[in-house]
Design goal:
101 residues; mainly beta; six-stranded mixed beta sheet; 1 helix; 5% helix
Length: 101
């Protein structure tokens, strides 16, 4: 595969198959940079946004429209991302949560 070939997109059901790397640029559907990937979880990735006052966005992998050598392209615009519920870290529904008796 040549470097200019676009990555084939997993279906929405297979969104966890995206190969997301920390440091990758994240770009909104408007073409504006949203931020950089800081961490990758099973169903979402964490994007640091801002220069002086940084805050995180927790973007679900099914929000990705494409991924190429220039970065991760979302289905949402930068403005939509900033004003979404992506500012709240998802609650882990796994079995590793602490239980007390």
């Amino acid at each position: 595969m040549s470097e200019s070939s676009p990555a084939s997109a997993p279906s929405k059901a297979d969104a966890t198959l995206w190969q997301i790397e920390p440091g990758a640029n994240v770009v909104g559907s408007c073409g504006h940079k949203i931020g950089e990937v800081m961490d990758v979880q099973e169903t979402y990735f964490v994007v640091e946004q801002g220069f002086f006052i940084c805050h995180d966005l927790y973007i679900p992998k099914d929000a990705i429209s494409s991924l190429d050598r220039h970065g991760i392209h979302l289905r949402a615009s930068k403005s939509d991302a900033k004003h979404s519920d992506w500012i709240v870290e998802p609650i882990d529904s796994g079995d590793d949560a602490a239980h007390t008796s």
